[in-house]
Amino acid sequence: MSSTPLHSTRIDLPVNVRSKIIETLNQTLATTLDLKTQVKQAPWNVKGMDFYQLHELFDELASELEEYVDLFAERITALGGTALGTARIAAAVSEIPEYPIDIFDGKSHVTALTDRYAPYAKLLRDGIAETDDLGDADTADLYTEVSRGIDKRLWFLEAHLQTDTIPASSNGAFPETKLTNGKKAKSKK
Predict the structure, then answer these.
(1) Is 10 within a domain?
(2) End-to-end alpha-carbon separation of the chain, Å?
(3) pLDDT (tens digit, 9 = 90+) per residue, 3-57?
(4) How many domains, the chain?
């Protein structure tokens, strides 16, 4: 990503440190913008029995990402940088794969979004470590805030794809075990 001149600021981070942080933030901004536009593909094109619920969830995800876009762009400019947030820049430097345009059922969209949220979550955790190592606790805290939200959303998406992993008895009930006091309880295996 090309470097732009820094604006003066009284923030007490050295210019070379701010430049590295701004570069990291601009990479994250581009990837966040790309993810937001990819997430919008899902509610526009999802079909099937869970259409309404998924449409609402996907729109919620996109709105949340829009807030993150602003947070990253504002941090860039607060550090004296220029936020590089055009669609062309985002497409050119994003770290997530292109969204498939030939899917329509809800499960396929949930899978596609999960496959994009997971590397995005890693990008955020890398941002936490990098900015913390550079001595910018404020930017590391911003990454941490967004990371918590993305992990929660990844959990929401993955929950649609997960099935019960607790072994069931042949009649579909959970197996029971005897406790030492003689009472029966559900197994926690």
Answers:
(1) no
(2) 50
(3) 678 999 999 999 999 999 999 999 999 999 999 999 999 999 999 999 999 999 9
(4) 1
Q: Which long-range contacts (CB under 8 A, 24 or more apart) does 121-124 make?
A: 121/147, 121/150, 121/151, 121/154, 123/27, 123/28, 123/31, 123/95, 124/28, 124/150
Burial 123-147 (b: 16+ CB within 10 A, else e): bbebbbebbeebebeebbebbbebb
* Any domain includes 4: no
Angle of the 15-45 helix axis to the 51-78 helix axis, nearest 10: 160
Whose tokens are 């004296």? That residue is: 80
| pLDDT tens-digit map of 108-160 | 999 999 999 999 999 999 999 999 999 999 999 999 999 999 999 999 999 99
Residue pointed to by tokens 């913390």: 132
Inside any domain, residue 3: no
* Residue 79 placed within a domain: yes
Q: What CATH number corresponds to the domain at position 40?
A: 1.20.1260.10
Contact 90, 30 (CB under 8 A): yes
Nearest residue to 127 (alpha-carbon basis) of 167, 179, 72, 81: 72
- 185 forms beta bridges with 177
Domain of residue 158 covers 15-186
